[in-house]
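Sample intake sheet
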Amino acid sequence: MSLLEGMVGASLSCPLFEFCIVNPFALPVLFLLLVVDATILDVLLIEYRIDPPLGSPIRDSAISIEYQPVAIAGRSYMLPFRSEVRMQVQSSRYVNTIDFRSYHKFAVESTVLP
């Protein structure tokens, strides 16, 4: 279940921003949904769907990225915790779900030598 599906029926204190971008040059139409926590101005969900042009073998294409606060080294960061890519090409349906976990701090140092 996506974050948005979990919010349906609940009272939302988060503003929903929906965009539809239509390209006059017959490229795919892009539908974008943003869910933002109004109290801290953090993005909780990004979903977008593309309606492919007529005649394309791709019938449907969508991506969603859900965010949650994650504690790393004593600080809280809003990071992706689940992502899903859905695509239908002709009669075949593909779904790729990624669960992000076990975040840890990564640091690197580098020096450019002459």
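Comment: Residues 1-12 have pLDDT under 50 and may be disordered. The longest helix spans residues 3-7.
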